[in-house]
Amino acid sequence: MIHAMNTDPHSDPLFELGQIIGPKYVLTGADAAPWARDWTGIAEWSPLAVLRPANTAEVAAVLKLANRHRLSIVPVSGNTNLVKGTSAEGALMLSLDRMSAIREIRPEARIAIVEAGVIIANLHGATGEHDLIFPLTFGARGSAMIGGALSTNAGGSNVVRYGNTRDLCLGLEVVLPSGEVMNLMSELHKDNSGYDLRHLMIGAEGTLGIITAAVLKLAPKPRAYATAMVAVPSVNAALALLNRLQDETGGAVEAFEYMPRSFIEAYLERFPEARPPFDTSHEVNILVELGARSPRDTTPGPDGSVPLAAHFEGVLAELFENGTLLDAVVAQNSAQRAEIWARREASAQVLRMRSPVIDNDIAVATDRMQTLLERIEARSTAIDPGILNTGVAHLGDGNLHYAGFPSVSDPALHRAIQRAVEEEVIALGGSFSAEHGIGLSKRPAMALHKDKAALGVMRAIKTALDPNNIMNPGKLLPDA
Amino acid sequence: MIHAMNTDPHSDPLFELGQIIGPKYVLTGADAAPWARDWTGIAEWSPLAVLRPANTAEVAAVLKLANRHRLSIVPVSGNTNLVKGTSAEGALMLSLDRMSAIREIRPEARIAIVEAGVIIANLHGATGEHDLIFPLTFGARGSAMIGGALSTNAGGSNVVRYGNTRDLCLGLEVVLPSGEVMNLMSELHKDNSGYDLRHLMIGAEGTLGIITAAVLKLAPKPRAYATAMVAVPSVNAALALLNRLQDETGGAVEAFEYMPRSFIEAYLERFPEARPPFDTSHEVNILVELGARSPRDTTPGPDGSVPLAAHFEGVLAELFENGTLLDAVVAQNSAQRAEIWARREASAQVLRMRSPVIDNDIAVATDRMQTLLERIEARSTAIDPGILNTGVAHLGDGNLHYAGFPSVSDPALHRAIQRAVEEEVIALGGSFSAEHGIGLSKRPAMALHKDKAALGVMRAIKTALDPNNIMNPGKLLPDA
């Protein structure tokens, strides 16, 4: 029996979307499954569809249609975020993965012009051919894309020298919630022409529009690296070492990463084939990397020694003599350098190797990190004496990735520990959200700790730019 | 005869303002005169009154009152801006000059916490005691204040190494148009907690609120400077020199300032007692300054030479040999360094020594500066064959301060030249506003050249945050 169709296919949004971007780029059901979960595998959702537009004009048309039908849009690029920022129950996920062109690299001006779907590691490869670097780097660089890095203002391991993603961006192209295309693709180092909408869009987590292209700053590739694992008596001693090295080298520290004994032990448990950094185990282990920029740093002296490396080893030897350095292993080649980095870059797996885990991405001024660690230990063990506290820190910029493995399975107790950690961060003038962003996971902390006037301004801006609340609704901003 | 008063003094806004900040800090008439004109003396206005609040709470109360009475507020700090950004006909000028405390300098964390009324030179003095610098510097530093520098995202001579004012700011306190106080006084290098309202307020020229305090980044004071005037055959040759020096020194260039022959001649005309930089005059004169950060740059070698200076002079000698350097004078002491800088810092006077002047604060990518200069010469002389073109440029960051002295007094012709210059800047992907901001003067250019979608977003934000349009009305945004 044949039924008369009582719906016009042209009023079906998915049909219309197929008209805009091509039906094969409107994915549903099993085709959409790779986007229907986050990187940790813990969070899952059922998107209405996944859209894979080819260019900015298609993105613009999709947003116009979404406004007309009041459909929610969740932008996604590499989908490596850790705060459920791409969760999309019933929403249209808009993937930037097909917009992956590196449009231009201009070595003289030290800029790259890229589309949002460029994978960060691919940009590293392309800039390397010009002896330049795009300095942003973190564990997920092999799948994370520029668009997501910009939308979340990603940080990583080299912030101490190069800043966060926003510091590496000169210009942006953004599709506004209305579907208008905003061209802010400035290549300039000075451009005071009205409100800085670039910085407003960077870190907005896709709630104010979709970043489709960017002008990025490049830096000269260091002529050589000096990389070491060192052990010192305390976190404050590590900071003294950092300041000493910055002073001695004219600011050549590229990375300064803290790993406590508990992290090294967890790493060796998770990767039994791996080697410990030292013969003896130490409480405070630091990965330090220097990058040489001047030929005076790398031109071998009469004795054949490389000035930066010799200087570095000289400082370490002096500190070893006076007891402020307990141990040190300096990489002698790139394989040893890679082994040192592998330990640090396994942290995303190591800190999630047990469940449940209380994890926090927090920041304090560097001179308050030791106090923070002491207070976290005190507060968390007061709540759960059997808790195992660990973590890693980008000590050079004050960012701690805390992980606590509680001894009992009790969500209320876990929340209490989470809350206690955040309270100590706030008491020390720190932030409950350093580099991973807010997404869904941090909205309660945002509601509790963010300045109320600032929240009011954010809500006013969101309402002004996205009156139908189609862009990544329910993320970043807590309910009023 | 005694008249009955038929106005209640308590409904007089100036009386109420006196109640808030003290009557003696509500200035009118002759007392207000120092604020009733801009630095150039060309623009004048009659403010309703000048208010000099003592603290943030008073600023907040003033803004609440201004909203109630729908009074316009024009914030002012050093009043050194060049785009009529503080013109205040009939408005309340709110001067931050009494809020001048340097609250704290934390050398270990390399931050300064200051109120908006701190004069930049005073902060230089205070940070110098800790062997640190606040790197922002420009000619008006002896009267310009931090609040104005932040509100306009001031640039200056050291942007090539340290960035603009926004790059030197970690946190802000802002009184919103509503009178609410927004606390964004973060001391952190990573703080992804919602929209970046700090960067929205920086450069908003007081149209979205009043910046009352800030957390600023400090940098280590260079161990030594190497400063020189050099002459090269062309602007492109100057750029090649810049890139060579950056490469040779690992990025130690602090300033790289271009002065054409016409500027040197105008300077010697304006300051007859001054000396020319070279015995012979040259078309392309460059002030270059390097800052040494590492002890390896400054520890004298066996022959007593300072490595950075020796290296610098070695590069210059090599370029002189191969003909890409025409002349060079290296400062041998701080008096010679001061003489070299005095020439550059006189530019604000030199470029305004004749009237009328067509002046423009514009930017292009550094690799397009020579083309821009050639096109300006061609376009302007086509309109006025007798025009004298001059200017100075922060060549290291692509910012040109163009000045044209037309041969005839004809406002329509002047506007045509102004327009032609801007057209060439835009055609080269540049900006009609580099570091001085928009104020009143650049609103026509803003209307003509700024991306329309961006203007729409700016207007939506302005309306959302300042619905009564009390904050510096008529500045920055062109009419819709």
Automatic annotation (TrEMBL), chains A, B:
<dbReference type="InterPro" id="IPR016164">
    <property type="entry name" value="FAD-linked_Oxase-like_C"/>
</dbReference>
<dbReference type="InterPro" id="IPR051264">
    <property type="entry name" value="FAD-oxidored/transferase_4"/>
</dbReference>
<dbReference type="InterPro" id="IPR016167">
    <property type="entry name" value="FAD-bd_PCMH_sub1"/>
</dbReference>
<dbReference type="InterPro" id="IPR004113">
    <property type="entry name" value="FAD-bd_oxidored_4_C"/>
</dbReference>
<dbReference type="GO" id="GO:0071949">
    <property type="term" value="F:FAD binding"/>
</dbReference>
<dbReference type="InterPro" id="IPR006094">
    <property type="entry name" value="Oxid_FAD_bind_N"/>
</dbReference>
<dbReference type="Pfam" id="PF01565">
    <property type="entry name" value="FAD_binding_4"/>
</dbReference>
<dbReference type="InterPro" id="IPR016171">
    <property type="entry name" value="Vanillyl_alc_oxidase_C-sub2"/>
</dbReference>
<dbReference type="InterPro" id="IPR016169">
    <property type="entry name" value="FAD-bd_PCMH_sub2"/>
</dbReference>
<dbReference type="InterPro" id="IPR036318">
    <property type="entry name" value="FAD-bd_PCMH-like_sf"/>
</dbReference>
<keyword id="KW-0274">FAD</keyword>
<comment type="similarity">
    <text>Belongs to the FAD-binding oxidoreductase/transferase type 4 family.</text>
</comment>
<dbReference type="InterPro" id="IPR016166">
    <property type="entry name" value="FAD-bd_PCMH"/>
</dbReference>
<dbReference type="GO" id="GO:0022904">
    <property type="term" value="P:respiratory electron transport chain"/>
</dbReference>
<keyword id="KW-0285">Flavoprotein</keyword>
<feature type="domain" description="FAD-binding PCMH-type">
    <location>
        <begin position="43"/>
        <end position="221"/>
    </location>
</feature>
<keyword id="KW-0560">Oxidoreductase</keyword>
<dbReference type="GO" id="GO:0016491">
    <property type="term" value="F:oxidoreductase activity"/>
</dbReference>
<dbReference type="Pfam" id="PF02913">
    <property type="entry name" value="FAD-oxidase_C"/>
</dbReference>
<protein>
    <submittedName>
        <fullName>Putative FAD-linked oxidoreductase</fullName>
        <ecNumber>1.-.-.-</ecNumber>
    </submittedName>
</protein>
